[in-house]
Structures are given as structure tokens and as C-alpha cells.
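Support case: user asked for a sample of complex input and structure output to validate their parser. Sending the pair below.
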Amino acid sequence: SYELTQPPSVSVSPGQTARITCSADALPKQYAYWYQQKPGQAPVLVIYKDSERPSGIPERFSGSSSGTTVTLTISGVQAEDEADYYCQSADSSGTYPRVFGGGTKLTVL
Amino acid sequence: QVQLQESGPGLVKPSETLSLTCTVSGYSISSGYYWGWIRQPPGKGLEWIGSIYHSGSTYYNPSLKSRVTISVDTSKNQFSLKLSSVTAADTAVYYCARDSPDNYYDSQGIDPWGQGTLVTVSS
């Protein structure tokens, strides 16, 4: 199988910057995607192709990639950003074209 | 805008087959895109199940492939999931969603998603 590794939790105070990482061997070759999921709701795409932001997603959400790690950055975190965040990518062989990370719980203190 | 809605039984007995349908509105499945299923066990993370194109071309999660069938009915603008020989481990919220445009390996992300439907496997 192929795995994407995320920290289980990240905590920040309002107004600060939150950084959530996702690591895997194929990330230098495969794009990463990020989803936000609030309790009882379906996931929402917040970043695609490492760093592109879908329409309607606030500018405080950004993505970056460096080697085997991709990072979702939320600048000026607001209370409404408290949620679970999942990265998604693929392995390099095409055997696993869609794989999700284990998720990171973002807590706004 | 594109909207998706899952439907199907909320309770399935062990060893039986789970069957769900996703109805798409605001977009014709025949126009393109892959369409997929993702599940989430209670309190756990997301797991991709598989995706289908309007032509019937499919991609499946290798860990579920032996038990999964995804099909499409363009006349009803629906696609469906069948998961056989279910156990309690298949208890989850099942989501349908729009996946890639025509090239499966040129993904723009999985978006949008349906609201999800909880399927419980229990006797």
C-alpha cells in the first residue's frame, strides 16, 4: 500500500499561522490536494495541484511543496478554520491513483 | 451548480452486498469527468473506493477491488456502488463526488462532494 503521513493535530491561536504537513515518497512527482472537513459535513477542496486555490476559497489558504513534503498554510487563522484537514495524492506507479492522508485536526485556541 | 446526492439502505447485514446510488444534478455525466466514491468510518479518516467515467472506464482501490463494482447510468444521470461480502469494518459514511476531468491522471481535485450517507453493517 501507499501512505501519506500527516500530524494528528495542530493548534494555533487566532490570527497566527497554521502549517499542516503531509509527507510521502512520491510527492516530488505527484500533485497534492487538500480538503477541509468540519464536523458533520462533507469535505471541501481548499487546495489543488499543490498550490492552486479553487474559487471561493479565502486567500489565507495556501499550499507549497518541497521534496517529499507538502504543506498547507493558513495565514491569520480564524475560529471558523477549526476542522480536520486531509491531504490527497497518488503513488508513482499508478497502482494507487487516489490516496488520503490520515488527517490533521486543527484546533484554534 | 453541480450537486450530488447519495441514496440507499442505511443498514446492511454481514456477508450481504451494500448498494448505493449517486444522483447528479446541474451537470450531465455524459459531458465528461470521472465520478467517484469515498468512505469514512465513524471517527476515522477518508478512504477512496473507486471512480468511473461515463464510458464505463473504472479505477478501483486495490485493497477493495475484489469486492467493489461501480457502474454508471447516463440516462438517469446516476452512478452506483456495490460492495459485496460486507463486514462491520465496512460501516462508514459513504460519499459520492466528482473526480477528474477526462484525463484521470490530470486531476483538479475531488469536488464537489455529496452530503454523505451512513451505512451500518449489522445483523
